[in-house]
Specification:
Helix 1 packs parallel to helix 5 and helix 3 packs parallel to helix 4. The longest helix is centred in the last third of the chain and has 18 residues. By secondary structure, this protein is of the alpha/beta class. Helix 1 links the parallel strand 1 and strand 2. It is built from five helices and five strands, in the order E-H-E-H-E-H-E-H-E-H. The two termini are 13 Å apart.
Length: 119
């Protein structure tokens, strides 16, 4: 089974993503920081979902390290629509997709499925 790594300490987001991951046939691994995200990825990692509200997270450094560790994995970032600078920074860092938190909560299965089917 393919793996989805969620980088977030938000339990509500985790619950929403966990349901979507199960629907898509993905195993969810939830971590809270940069080092644990990189360590959690492996050959079976298909998706990494980054919560841009995570404390102390440098999205550009994380994306660079993830690309070196798991080049086959898609990287999706999400954040509140009011945090436009963080969303733009994630886009500039090279995330495959950047969505608002509302988009993710509303369309989680569809967002995950597009990358699951692509692989």
């Amino acid at each position: 089974m393919s793996k989805l790594v969620l980088v977030s300490g938000d339990l509500m987001l985790r619950a929403r993503v966990e349901g979507a991951a199960q629907t898509c046939g993905l195993t969810l691994v939830s971590v809270t920081g940069h080092d644990s995200a990189v360590a959690a990825c492996g050959d079976d990692c298909r998706l990494v979902l980054i919560d841009l509200r995570s404390t102390g997270l440098n999205v550009a450094e994380l994306v660079d390290d993830l690309r070196r560790q798991v080049s086959q994995a898609a990287i999706v970032a999400c954040g509140p629509h009011v945090h436009q600078q963080r969303l733009e920074a994630a886009q500039q860092a090279g995330c495959d997709l950047v969505v608002t938190r509302g988009q993710l909560e509303r369309d989680a299965e569809a967002i995950l499925q597009q990358f699951f089917e692509a692989g």
